[in-house]
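WARN retry 2 of 3 for item q-0093 after timeout on previous attempt; input resubmitted unchanged.
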Amino acid sequence: MQNDDFKYVIQDTGCVYFGRELTYTEMMAREDVPFKFKAIINGHIGKDTDLNQTIAAHVLGIDTASFTYRIFEQLKLTVRVCYQTKKQGLFGKSRERWIHKACPIKQFCAEYRDQVKAHQMMIEDISISKLALMVIST
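OK item q-0093 returned
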């Protein structure tokens, strides 16, 4: 698996999804990233953060008292995580399955961040709300 597999931007009617290995610098260079989000990166996030850092690494290390954290809350940033569990089958056979969860940044920082740092969970992608992006003023 290459790192490019997790460098993507996908948009649907309600959200913009960013791959976990995408850096802020790469976001600024892409045409499929909304201009308003680029303006937020350039004007606010870039002041607190190294733009060569991935968005997943930034979310893992973000301080809940920082201005960037409040911006992410306003953008309704959602982190999608996954983890593997063992499920006991009907005849005693054990099998592994993947559980996927999407949670707002506040819940992620409170409940799941330490598990991701301990490699018990993995960040799949990060998304922001298009409606929240439209409403926020830069």
